[in-house]
Specification:
Layout (H helix, E strand, L loop, with lengths): L17 H18 L1 H15 L5 H14 L6 E5 L4 E5 L3 H8 L10 H4 L4
Antiparallel strand pairs: 1-2
Helix pairs in contact: 1-2, 1-4
């Protein structure tokens, strides 16, 4: 009997990170309860400056479009980019939708992961 070997790489699989949002929510909730909402703002602002600031507006637009495509939620995102401005409209947060569907109630501060992070 011949032995069959199947080779697979992680990149062969569909990229989904939806459970990441629950972990992020737990972390944001902890920071909010222990240190207050100002600490959440400071944390997310520091992260955004380190991660997003090096990007051009066009790169940032493509990044948002790729993320929402990976979330299978490109229909809730609208972006308009000019040479000097990027407008991002999000009709519904796919992470909150996923968490509620899976039985996890998002913390009162989770929306900051969009409003502060993308500001």
């Amino acid at each position: 009997m011949a032995k069959e070997v199947m080779e697979r790489k992680a990149s062969d699989n569909k990229y989904l990170h939806k459970d990441f949002h629950v972990s992020l929510d737990i972390g944001i909730d902890y920071i909010g309860k222990q240190f207050g909402p100002e600490a959440i703002d400071a944390y997310l602002t520091q992260y955004a400056k380190a991660f997003y600031q090096p990007m051009t507006l066009k790169e940032l637009q493509r990044y948002f479009e790729r993320i929402y495509q990976a979330e299978e939620a490109q229909d809730v995102l609208k972006t308009v980019c000019t040479d000097t401005f990027l407008t991002v409209e999000i009709r519904e947060c796919p992470a909150i939708h996923f968490m509620k569907q899976s039985g996890h109630e998002p913390s009162e501060w989770y929306e900051k992961t969009t409003s502060v992070l993308y500001r």
